[in-house]
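Action item from last meeting closed. Structure (309 res):
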């Protein structure tokens, strides 16, 4: 058989081979349009579909059965379709992808690939069964993420059971401080009802001081106050609004940490309350103006869980 010349293969073949290798490396690194921009900077033009075809034409890499196998699920369509990804924990590479997250495919894969010594999995029961049936001699462990996730859920469940201990209500069942007679919420300086009552008291005191000095009341308002025994006698009681029967509920939910107007409005509508979004928003806005000496809001379940973990 004749020997090859030193110039073999021809230059154009060597150039094509090097170009294909370059396209494969660019495609594996970036692919798509980003790979197209890099290829243009390197001096050879290639469309994004060309890079994708070069990557798809590569043979699947050969791998040995990992000693430590990672088993976890991932969502192809979250909430509907899930698959299982198998990884080599020691060298951080994907080994295979199973179509479902049930025990059967995992059992079949482990039987076809003997030699797995440790299976690092999440807490799914199907994975536990699959590992037990497919590799009965392998040690099953949980990775750091799933240990931490399980601990967080356990702590959150425990704190949620004792959520009443986070609150410190007064013996009377109302919040400390001067409260409104109809709502039990601390009265702020911006309360229009409180300001109106103060004005009535001032007018009542002024009119009776003038009468004591011998002045006669002029006009209808001073005469009204002169014939009244108290600042508020003879006046109509405040009109009961549509939101009044639900103010205590809103204030209790506000203290619990639910401050979203939209959510609270939906809760009232679910209870067939004849209230509008504007009424709920106005009342929640008044609750946000809490006095400076008001007690701090109790911590939420999520906050306490974060402190403990």
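Sequence:
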């Amino acid at each position: 058989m004749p020997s090859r010349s030193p110039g073999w293969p021809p230059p154009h073949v060597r150039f094509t081979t090097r170009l294909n290798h370059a396209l494969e490396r660019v495609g594996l690194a970036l692919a798509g349009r980003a790979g197209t921009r890099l290829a243009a900077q390197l001096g050879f033009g290639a469309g994004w579909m060309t890079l994708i075809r070069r990557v798809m034409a590569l043979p699947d890499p050969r791998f040995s059965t990992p000693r430590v196998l990672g088993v976890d699920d991932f969502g192809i369509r979250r909430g509907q379709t899930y698959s299982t990804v198998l990884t080599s924990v020691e060298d951080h590479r994907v080994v295979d992808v199973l179509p479902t997250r049930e025990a059967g495919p995992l059992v079949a894969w482990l039987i076809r690939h003997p030699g797995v010594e440790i299976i690092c999995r999440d807490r799914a029961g199907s994975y536990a069964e699959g590992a037990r049936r497919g590799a009965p001699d392998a040690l099953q462990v949980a990775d750091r993420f799933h240990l931490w996730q399980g601990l967080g859920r356990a702590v959150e469940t425990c704190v949620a059971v004792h959520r009443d201990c986070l609150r410190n209500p007064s013996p009377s069942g109302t919040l400390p401080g001067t409260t409104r007679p109809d709502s039990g919420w601390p009265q702020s300086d911006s309360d229009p009802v409180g300001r109106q009552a103060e004005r009535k008291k001032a007018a009542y005191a002024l009119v009776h001081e003038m009468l004591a000095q011998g002045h006669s009341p002029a006009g209808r308002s001073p005469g009204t106050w002169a014939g009244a025994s108290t600042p508020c006698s003879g006046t109509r009681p405040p009109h009961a609004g549509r939101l009044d029967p639900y103010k205590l509920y809103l204030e209790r939910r506000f203290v619990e940490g639910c401050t979203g107007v939209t959510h609270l409005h939906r809760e009232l509508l679910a209870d067939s309350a004849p209230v509008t979004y504007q009424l709920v928003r106005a009342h929640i806005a008044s609750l946000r103006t809490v006095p400076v000496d008001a007690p701090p809001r109790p911590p939420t379940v999520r906050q306490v869980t974060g402190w403990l973990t």
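Note appended to the action item: The CA atoms of residues 39 and 264 lie 56 Å apart.
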